[in-house]
Amino acid sequence: MSTSPQFIQPKDLITGSTRVSSLPEIFIMINEVVNNPTSSFSDISKVVNLDAALSARLLKIVNSSFYSFPSNIETVTHAIAVIGTEQLHDLALATTILSTFKGIPDTIVNMNLFWRHSLGVAIIARTLAIHCRETNPERFYLAGILHDVGRLIILENLPEESKEIVSRQNEVGGIMWQIEREVLGFDHADVGAALARAWKLPLSLEEIIGNHHNPSRSKRYPLETTIIHLADIIAKAMELGSSGDIHVSPLDEKSWEQLKLPIGIFSALWSQVETQFNESIDVVLSG
After folding, report:
1. pLDDT of 44-101, one tens digit each?
2. pTM as predicted
3. Which whole-number Å values give the CA distances from 110 to 30, 189, 271, 277, in the listed order?
4. DSSP code string of 220-287
5. Which CATH number, 1.10.3210.10, 1.20.120.450, 1.10.10.10, 3.90.550.10, labels domain 10-21+105-284?
6. In this structure, which of 106, 108, 125, 159 has its CB flanked by the most CB atoms within 10 Å?
7. What does the pLDDT look like over 161-210, one tens digit per residue?
8. Are 283 and 64 in contact (CB under 8 A)?
């Protein structure tokens, strides 16, 4: 990028990147048909089926332990009828995100470990949301997939600054997002929020992503942000992949009180997440 780093803002990294400056084309089409009140399940299914890889992955997900439906779901139309258009919409975007960032070389970041971490956070967040009786838990899955994409955008567009951030952490320790703020004046959460804004995603996603390290700053969606914050910490504790940060961010003191979940939930959650995570590696990250 031509702008001097000290004057770069998160939005500049979005507008200056051909990879993320606009929503993926297939998702724009899905958005249009889902938001059209005259669209039928069949109409939505036809658009999803235009991307064979996307439709195949979605069917694999709805037929996995992620949902544990008693009978096999063979078509996208059937999947929409069972889980709903809003849920399929969010699952489709989460799946599309993986393709958007294909091609980033492993010399910059270990993409397999990165997506394993994101997937772990997504599954844990969805599971926590279900326990909290939140509606449409797929939006938490989507937020989990998206929560750290700002780091990929920084790594790809500011490679020299990224090396300095990693070097500082290796030499003196510290939390990655805090070092990003020292070097850049903003962190990957700010960039992720800028991406959500540029893509015109729901305001809830922008706020969740932007505050997932500091959920107490979330004004409109504190519970949702806290779920992603806690899911991020649990994923690191379970060693589900790696976002590139060698340290676990501190738990926001009010987070646990916010969720009002019993301590005993963790043993059940741990085994449930492990089962879904191991299966999802093959379903979501293959290909």
Report:
1. 999 999 999 889 889 988 898 888 888 899 999 999 998 899 888 898 898 888 888 8
2. 0.90
3. 30, 19, 26, 18
4. S-HHHHHHHHHHHHHHHHTT-S--S-SSPPPPPTTHHHHHT--TTHHHHHHHHHHHHHHHHHHHHS--
5. 1.10.3210.10
6. 125
7. 999 998 998 888 889 999 999 999 999 999 999 999 999 999 999 999 99
8. yes
